[in-house]
Amino acid sequence: MIKIVLDCYGGDHSPEANIDGALAALEQLQDLQLVLSGDEAALRKLLEGRQYDASRVEFLHAPQVIGCDEKPTDVIRLKRESSMIKAVRLLRDDDSAAAMVSTGSTGALVAAALTRIGRLRGVIRPAFCPILPTVNGGLVGVCDSGANVEVTPEHLRQFAIMASLYMENVYGVKNPRVALLNVGKEAEKGDELRQTAYKLLSETAELNFVGNMESRDLLSGNYDVVVCDGFSGNVLIKATEGTAVELLKKLKKDIYSSWVYKLGAAIMAKMFKEEKDFFNYQNYGGSVLLGTSKVVVKGHGSSKARAVQKCIEQAYRMQASELNSKMEEIICKYEHYEA
After folding, report:
1. Model pTM above 0.85
2. What is the Rg, in whole angstroms, of the alpha carbon atoms belonging to the chain?
3. For site-directed labelling of 170, which of 131, 268, 295, 301 has its Cα 20 to 30 A away?
4. pLDDT digits over 58-105, tens only?
């Protein structure tokens, strides 16, 4: 059995979406065990009349909820009975607990994970690695996407190693192509940080480093991992997602502007549905926090049941593939480099 702690509160659609996603994951994964963290009475009420294997579900009573506008350092100290903090503590203290999933406050989760769970041996800083779909039907991971605004070349090398192993072990990408986000593809492009990082990545035997990548090529399908500082990565992902959403809005508006377009849209309805599913982040899970001593997955705050299910499946596959031990083994080869 793989035990995962699910924080059932904090998201826009919590706790209903978390419960629905949990039940879907239990049905899909027969050796999954879940610990549901939150108001136990409320969670049990949501489960009334539902079909599920009760022997694989536990409850962690946590009456408090962390708001997204609360200061992370304060909630760790003042909201010890919250669903997130109690989930983190259980993950730390229970050797049988392998991972946790939360759709709550990102800042609180990162702060709690770093102070209560800690890092893998050799890891300087954990990093977020969300995934996006590419136009050729593949996936690309972006690491980091917000956990580390300022980085060193050695941080970027560690992000590349962790994300490459993640894509290979969790998503089956063979010999992932790793790129460095930069202002141009030429090796000499960028500031001193990027130029030094380019050299380090090129010298790392465990990486299939293919050079620099410009932001416009993120969804091209030519890369499996993109390495960057957390500030640039966060802007890259949000700009890409925002562009996709606005394009879909414009397409819908244009279709309804003419009966001819409406007729054409009716004929192409199946294709439009596929395109909508392609851009829907709910189908791709959450952003994993690579480098913590136990698996942590952060779902989008607006996650619905499908996204919560995918987050649980991500955590499950990370544990089943023994990803953390593989990351630790390779990263420790480079511990002697100054961070």
Report:
1. yes
2. 21
3. 301
4. 999 999 998 877 888 787 888 999 999 999 999 999 999 999 999 999
DSSP 193-226: HHHHHHHHHHT-TT-EEEEEE-GGGTTSSS-SEE
pLDDT in tens, 50-59: 999 999 999 9
Residues 227, 232, 233: CA angle, nearest 5 degrees = 55
Distance, CA of 83 to CA of 175 (rounded, Å)? 38
DSSP state of 281: G
Q: What are the beta bridge partners of residue 16?
A: none
Domains identified in the chain and CATH numbers: 1-120+291-322 (3.40.718.10), 124-290 (3.40.718.10)
Burial status of residue 72 (CB atoms within 10 A of its CB: 0-12, 13-18, 19 or more): middle
Q: What burial letters (b/e) apply to 211-240, b meaning 16+ CB within 10 Å?
A: bbbeeebbbebbbbbbbbbbebbbebbeeb
Within 10 A of 252 (CB to CB), how many other CB atoms are there? 13
Q: Residue 222's Cα: distance from chain center in Å?
A: 21
Residues 6 or more apart in contact with residue 182 via CB below 8 angstroms:
189, 190, 194, 198, 212, 213, 214
